# Entry
Amino acid sequence: MGKLDKKVAVITGAASGIGRATAIRFAGEGAAVVIADLNREGGEAAVRDCRENGGSAVFQLADVSSEEDIKGAVDRAVKEFGRLDIIYNNAGLGGAVGPLEKTSAENWDRSFSILLRAVFLGIKHATPEMRKQGGGSIISTASIAGIRGAAGLHAYCAAKAGVISLSRSAAIELAKDKIRVNCICPGLIATPLTYNRIPGGEQTATQLFAAFQPWPRAGRPEDIAAMALFLASDDSEFVSGQAMVVDGAVTSGMVGGNLPQAQSGTSILDDEWSGPSFQMKRPS
Ligand SMILES: NC(=O)c1ccc[n+]([C@@H]2O[C@H](COP(=O)([O-])OP(=O)(O)OC[C@H]3O[C@@H](n4cnc5c(N)ncnc54)[C@H](O)[C@@H]3O)[C@@H](O)[C@H]2O)c1
# Structure
């Protein structure tokens, strides 16, 4: 028996990366999935992957910056599979990047319409259908960029912080309807979103990410899909309003613990006691 038997899910941005891996995982656990994305070719390939993994899936062409398209994805789930239990608001992009002074208000607004407004609209249109079923699980992809800053990613960081905040306020409002609202904060995950901009592509990106974070490998879309499955399933029945960080410990601190160690491989913290500073001798 699968963890999502008889459940119906809408996943936005499921033609690629995290959304696609999650759709395949959900399908393998018995869910019927609506793959909602701008990318028809990738979306149809994801449908085939889901079916090969044992589940039902359909593709719905949708631009998450359109309220009509988001409602259309929810309606498609009900029309095709009879109900809606899970929505994963995941579609995303880098959006407005670069220095603040060079960021246009238009690109700022476009970023917010895809990264934050679409999450609000997903919650808004999924709620009435979930209420009819006596509950449901709403999941959104935030980011560690929503809890830490990143120069040049101002709109992205601010929008992802908004996703975390919105998940909390919606969780409070919808708890009485047994609708849980959580988000996931991925760290550096090797997907086309990250590696298509890096010279050397996927191979270089996975090496860079592995070196940058304490866990000695790059994050994979499947790492996020596993958390999404937990949040979608009844295993997380008492979990709501949370931002689940899945990041190979990158937000926990620096690789190697201290700068000299990271630079030379020798630590200044390998003795047993660090005494008062006036008694300390600087290592030569
Ligand atoms: N990859 C990472 O390191 C990382 C880290 C933190 C958060 N995230 C977030 O994870 C989510 C998924 O990203 P990914 O890394 O899998 O990237 P990806 O590019 O592989 O997948 C994103 C998907 O969203 C779709 N999409 C983009 N704009 C859309 C729109 N307007 N309407 C409908 N679909 C649209 C794309 O077509 C694509 O299929 C995003 O919200 C992203 O911000 C990614």
